Amino acid sequence: MRLIRTAAKWFDDRLQLGAPIRDTMAHPIPKDTASWFYVFGSAAMTVFALQIVTGILLALIYVPSAAEAWNSLQILNHQVSLGWFIRALHGWGSNFMLAIVLIHMVQVFLFGAYKFPRELTWIIGIFLLLMTLGMAFTGQVLRFDQDSYWGLGIGASIASRVPIAGPVLVKLMLGGPIIAGSTLSRFFALHVFAIPGLLIAFVGLHVLLVLKVGINEWPMPGRLVRRSDYVEKYHTLTHTDGVPFVPYGVWKDAVFSGLILLAIAACALYFGPFGPSGQPDPRVIQTAPRPDFFFLWLYALLSLLPPQLETPVLLIGPVIALVVLLALPFFSGEGEKHWKRRPIAVLTILLVAVSLGTFTNMADHTPWSPVMDASTSASIPAKLLGGRTPLEIQGALVFQEKQCHNCHALGAIGGQRGPALDAVAVRLTGDQLVRQVLQGGGNMPAYGKNLNPAQTTALVAFLQTLHPAAAAQAKDASQAPRAQP
Question: Most exposed of 152, 299, 328, 411 (fewest Cβ within 10 Å)?
Answer without folding.
Answer: 411
